[in-house]
Design a protein that fits this description.
The protein is an alpha/beta fold. Helices cover about 25% and strands about 30% of the residues.
Length: about 280
């Protein structure tokens, strides 16, 4: 759903043992964001009494705090069209014929409350790395682990991937991403999945994308599942964190491309066995 940049959001932070089978019932509820051990409930207006009553009925839940933010504080949204390589991400008021006149591929993204509007340096770095990889490798099957809004999965579909598995542990992200897949006309190519482990896909794919938060990235890199894929793009970490991350990389994969933007790094890896 579209949210105005100036809209006030009322956020309730709850300690939660897991996802509740039932969400609070209110027309003002915008989204539910699970971030273990907490879950965040976003409303368009204050709902103190509702949340206090609802939490009391959820075993193990505890209401920790409530705060107000502007939507613009939560999600970066472009004021105009953004160009990243051969991609254009239209702003709220797209420039007439911008994508047609430049021959660019248009990524129509409604971020809602999910990460991936296209402005963050890690997203931009990944888009540029993906474009380079597609230009030099035969890539038909892709996994986007931590898909968020689905922007990277959509980019891969537009670049020619025949099958993309878009995985996120957040059900809200998967719902938002699915909507973006439909708007961009690639829902037949991209398959959204709610999961927290790339191992749910047992097959070896051509490319795995991991633009995820540092704790999740280091945990995933330390596990073997992602190593079966020929190419990998890692992002979501600072330049200063690269020495630590590189020390965790197995000998099976070596860096072949790097992007640095505003202190954030994106690194593309290739399986050693696949090198010419």
């Amino acid at each position: 759903m579209k949210i105005e940049d100036s809209k006030r959001l009322f956020v309730y932070e709850c300690l939660a043992p897991g996802l509740s089978a039932r969400e609070p019932v209110a027309p003002t509820l915008v989204a539910v964001w699970p971030e273990p051990p907490c879950t965040y409930f976003f409303f368009e207006s204050p709902e103190d009494e509702l949340m206090e009553t609802w939490v009391q009925m959820q075993p193990g839940f505890e209401l920790l705090s409530r705060y107000e933010i502007d939507y613009g504080q939560w999600q970066q949204v472009a004021t105009g069209d953004q160009r990243v390589g051969s991609f254009i991400i239209p702003g709220p008021a797209p420039e007439p014929n911008a994508s047609r006149s430049s021959g660019a591929k248009t990524l129509i993204i409604d971020p809602g409350l999910v990460f991936g509007s296209g402005l963050h340096p890690t997203t931009r770095g990944c888009l540029l790395a993906i474009e380079k990889l597609f230009g030099h490798h035969r890539i038909k099957e892709v996994m986007d682990f931590g898909t968020g809004t689905g922007i990277l999965a959509i980019a891969c579909a537009l670049l020619g991937a025949g099958r993309v598995v878009a995985i996120d542990c957040n059900p809200l992200a998967v719902r938002v991403a699915h909507g973006n897949f439909m708007v961009n006309g690639v829902s037949g190519i991209i398959h959204p999945v709610v999961a927290d482990d790339p191992g749910v896909v047992g097959a070896s794919l051509d490319l795995i994308l991991m633009n995820i938060e540092w704790p999740c990235l280091t945990k995933t890199i330390s596990q073997p599942h992602w190593r079966r894929h020929s190419l990998a793009v890692l992002s979501g970490f600072l330049e200063s964190q690269w020495p630590t991350l590189s020390s965790l990389l197995p000998a099976t994969h070596v860096p072949i491309h790097e992007e640095s933007h505003d202190g954030w790094r994106t690194v593309a890896l290739e399986a050693v066995a696949d090198r010419p």
